Amino acid sequence: MGSDFRKEQELSYLIERFSGFIRAQINKYCVVHSTLDVEDILQETRIKLWKIIYSEKKIRNYASYIKKIVDTSVMDFLRKYKREEGIYFHEMNRKICEKNSFDDTDFLYEQSDLNDIVGKAIEGLIESRKKVVKLYLLNLSIEEIAFYFHWTPHKARNLLYRGLLDLKKILKEKKIDYEHK
């Protein structure tokens, strides 16, 4: 009982002490990506902080750890948004296909195979380029990628373009036509 009370006090103290810092970190992302909801991310950050405290993990630098929690919470929400956006477009395309009575089974299999091939090709990129290309394919802009990694937009753009060139080269070697003519 005493241990739980101490953990609740620690959580309350951290939330009170760092609430301005947490909001500032979240707001930096919201300026770049308007689809983010500050309150949802704030709640997710509190939950993650609560889980860390109850796991009894020792934290040495709360500010940097909380910043990391905010970063992961924002990325989780961006991924969720992109996933939901993808589901919406997938359903819309499915309904269009049904309406046109178009048999797209072969196309879906080909698309699935292509996704696997591209995924494996991305895994073959060097680490810095792979991270940037993956985020770009999640529809993050160069500015958002730069902000996430604390890079200049020039560095993010450079790594992205090099990564995409490497990816095109790998796909070309696999005889995959990646550009529509």
Summarize the structure.
With 181 residues, this protein is mainly alpha-helical. It is built from seven helices and no strands. It is 80% helix and 0% strand.
Describe the 3D structure.
By secondary structure, the chain is mainly alpha-helical. The protein folds into two domains: 74 residues, Rna Polymerase Sigma Factor, Chain: A; 79 residues, Winged helix-like DNA-binding domain superfamily/Winged helix DNA-binding domain (Arc Repressor Mutant, subunit A, Orthogonal Bundle). 80% of the residues lie in helices and 0% in strands. It has seven helices and no strands. About 6% of the residues have low confidence.
Q: Supply the helix-strand structural class.
A: mainly alpha
CATH class bucket of the largest domain:
Mainly Alpha
Nearest-integer average pLDDT? 79
Q: How many strands, which pairing sense, and closed or not: the largest β-sheet?
A: none
Q: How do the helices and strands follow one another from N- to C-terminus? A: HHHHHHH
Low-confidence stretches: 100-109
Any idea of the CATH topology of the largest domain? Arc Repressor Mutant, subunit A
Assign an overall shape.
elongated
The radius of gyration is: 21 Å
* CATH architecture annotation name of the largest domain: Orthogonal Bundle
List keywords for this structure.
mainly alpha; Rna Polymerase Sigma Factor, Chain: A; Arc Repressor Mutant, subunit A; 7 helices
Q: What is the topology?
A:
Elements (H helix, E strand, L loop, with lengths): L1 H31 L5 H17 L7 H38 L5 H19 L3 H11 L4 H8 L3 H21 L8
